[in-house]
Amino acid sequence: MVLYGSLAVCAVLAALLVYRYDMYEREPWYMILLAVALGWGAMWLIGFVEGWTLDRFGTAPRPDLLVAAVAATHEELVRLAVVILLAIVLPGQFNDPMDGIIYGSIIGVGMAIDESISYLRLDPAAGPLLPPAEVIRVTGHLVMGGITGFAIGMARTGLRGWPWALAGCLAVSMSLHFLWDAIALAAHGVGVMTAWQTAGAIGLLGSGILFYGMLVVRSSAWSRQIFDPLSRRRLWGWPLTLLVRDDASR
């Protein structure tokens, strides 16, 4: 129970980190819980679809790359679908350019919880506390979910260029997901990560967080213009350490 309790604490802290950036039209707590639950359920369901897809292409020459490709495409598409579902079914709550990132990120946390539980159940060596790999898993799904959902906030609030943003962000999140899984599976196959693989994983995580942070800044600026243009509040937070000052304070 302590192990799963630490996973819950990690997920709550991740959700609070995202919630901190929703400054000008904050989402109610029950919507955050709904997004977590939808992400959890979507990940459970997509597991069956991923298994079916892998069975269909089971003779691929590089099974590790096939698994990485299936995970990247299926999981990012279902993440996008859940964000779109929320925007359509609950338009009164999905009314902020920031909402694409907020809901995409929280849905990602829900998906990470389901995936982490699956891996922890299969790991007989798991100790009482959450392994660092699971913390990274939660962070990765949060970041990729926010990137995937970004353009839906643009579309919902009528901002121009959202189709291009959607295509570009989906390509980025799928690429990050594929490359991360490809490195992890290659290292798992030989039982150790090489220096190049370690550097690649660090580079992917860092670049993903940086890109995510840029989207947070952009969305927050749009949100401020719509809901509180005279605000003097600042957007900042670890691990993004980004700072946006209001024009009036410069």
How would you portray this structure in words?
The longest helix is centred in the last third of the chain and has 33 residues, at 195-227. It is built from seven helices and no strands. It is an all-alpha fold. α2 runs antiparallel to α3 and α5 (132-156) packs parallel to α7. It has one domain (2-249).
Number of helices, where a helix is a run of at least 4 consecutive DSSP H or I residues: 7
DSSP strand (E) fraction?
A: under 5%
Number of domains: 1
Count of strand segments: 0
Helix proportion range? over 70%
Element order, helices and strands? HHHHHHH
N→C terminal distance: 50 Å
Average pLDDT level: 87
Low-confidence stretches: 237-250
Structural class: mainly alpha
Rg over CA atoms, rounded to whole Å, is 18 Å
Keywords:
250 residues; globular
Secondary-structure topology with pairs:
Elements: H1 2-20, H2 29-56, H3 63-89, H4 99-121, H5 132-156, H6 162-190, H7 195-227
Helix pairs in contact: 1-4, 1-5, 2-3, 2-4, 3-4, 3-5, 3-6, 4-5, 5-6, 5-7, 6-7
What does this entry show, briefly?
With 250 residues, the chain is an all-alpha fold. It is 74% helix and 0% strand. It starts with a helix and ends in a 23-residue tail after the last helix.
